[in-house]
Amino acid sequence: MKKITINIVLAALCLNFPANSQTARPEKCLRIGDKVPDVTFSYLQNENSKTGKLSDYKEKLLILDFWATWCSPCIAMIPKMEKLQKDFGTKIQFLPVAYQPASVILPHLKKRVKTPDHIDLPEVTDDKVLADLFPHTYLPHYVWIGTDGTVKAITGYEEVTAENINKLLAASDVKLLVKNDEQLLEYDKSKPLFINNNGGSGVAMTYHSLISNYTPGLPAGGTVTRDSIAGTKFSFRNLPLITLFRMAYWDKDYFADNRTVIEVKDTSKLNSGLSGAPYLEWMSAGNVYTYELSLPPALSGKESDFMREDLARYFTQYQTGIEKRKIKCLALVRTSSKDKLKTAGGAQVADFSTEGFTLRNTSIWALIQRLNQIYLRSSKLSLVDATAYTGTIDLSVNANLTSVSAINLALQKYDLRIEERVMDVDMLVIRDRPEKNNLQTY
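The structure corresponding to this sequence follows.
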């Protein structure tokens, strides 16, 4: 039996929820205002000693950063924390804490050495102590400890700003937006949603699709599980409607903001553009949905078709479809007819970091997709493949993947270039359905 589970990269879809941690929640934990015991932790990296105590930083505002290498928002926070540490100097101390072992953490951190704002922060790896004091469900997770040894704040990454640091340095009673994820419903993504109270109430089903309104406490996220015996399950939980539409066309292309055309009068029901507490209020007003689909192996490959049909039946006020639109975009082109891309064969590899990537025996689509989803997702222009290259490729690039100019410099040896063009591009179009038409096309 072959089973494959894919955790959807939600950060690339501009959601406001970080990745789930693997930390268990004990019965007792520290909260804001509690005195922090002077615990000792082992596996301290980048310091003279391999063990440490929280009291080692008692003269500073201490900010614990619970993170993991697989958490995209965590990785995005590293350069920001390094800059804040450099700016505030000895007044504060960021202390990253990871449950992962040093053998995983250290190779990842070595890639940061070449970056301009790099600063060596003390790193706690193999953590089993601090996470018990400060249990959490989502990463990244920040605990702010004052010079008096009490917990001043427990926040998400949005609150980690120079302004808030200055506030806590100036006064001890500053209240930041609390990140409280201790009361989430239990949810096991390997089991059917709503069965035996897995994420809420439900009924037993072997083949089903369902749409529900907002369920408080249900962790937001997306999972695709493919099993050669049990079949395929799509599970998208507490997500905005625009995200559901995009996932329904996942088999066609990756449709970010710059590949989506919205032609509706009221866009507030599709997506909020909010974050933090206002986003939670928007969700609570019934603006997010849960969709789950289970199909037997005989219908493998039809999942996106079923999802589009389900959404069309339920959200009859909208029409969705893919249309060619002439837009300004970023096009990956070849600068010569000489083939410098052909693979030498071997195992498929697609390894990416902020400092570069290695592709082996894979398609150009793997590069286009990853750049669009993560590294260039803030760009107003979408990256499209204009190479017409159909074979598998080998590419190895060392460059800042958030900079098109840096990528182009590294791609020169492969006779590739990213340039601005006006092209006919497939766009996801969402529009209001005419009242006289009872059917939705897609």
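Residues 72-88 form the longest helix (17 residues).
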